[in-house]
Write a structure and sequence with these properties.
The protein is mainly alpha-helical and 114 residues long. It has one domain (32-112). The chain has helices spanning 7-29, 34-47, 54-68, 70-81, 85-91, 102-112. Helix 1 packs antiparallel against helix 4 (70-81), helix 1 (7-29) runs antiparallel to helix 6 (102-112) and helix 2 packs antiparallel against helix 3. It starts with 6 loop residues before the first helix and ends with a helix.
């Protein structure tokens, strides 16, 4: 039996993608916010609460490349704006907590609940 998506889940998927697009746009305008993600990665790895840190290490490489040059930033922005299954897996371990303000997050939370 295949996995079926509920009607609510189908409605939420585009909103989740919109949140990633919003995040990409914000990081493009304010690349200094990448520091928050790197701090999260360091803290989470040092905290040892995550078993497998492979995805965090992958994010760290991507973000450091984005901070290093424009090509790296373009690669990060493209990844954030992409919707493939591989990218969804990486996004499931997102280090971007704290980059969006509460008000920005609430825009998406309120939309999900309606």
């Amino acid at each position: 039996m295949g996995m079926e998506l509920s009607e609510a889940s189908i409605r939420v998927q585009p909103l989740i993608h919109q949140k990633w697009l919003f995040l990409a746009d914000k990081l493009e305008r304010q690349p200094d916010l990448l520091g928050i993600a790197l701090e999260n990665i360091e803290s989470w790895i040092k905290g040892g609460r995550l078993g497998d840190t492979q995805m965090l290490e992958q994010w760290k490489q991507i973000i450091e490349a984005a901070r290093a040059d424009r090509q790296g930033m373009e690669a990060l922005l493209q990844l954030l704006r992409e919707e493939s299954e591989e990218v969804r897996s990486l996004k499931s371990c997102s280090p971007f907590a704290g980059v969006l303000t509460r008000e920005e997050r609430d825009q998406f939370t309120c939309a999900w609940s309606h």
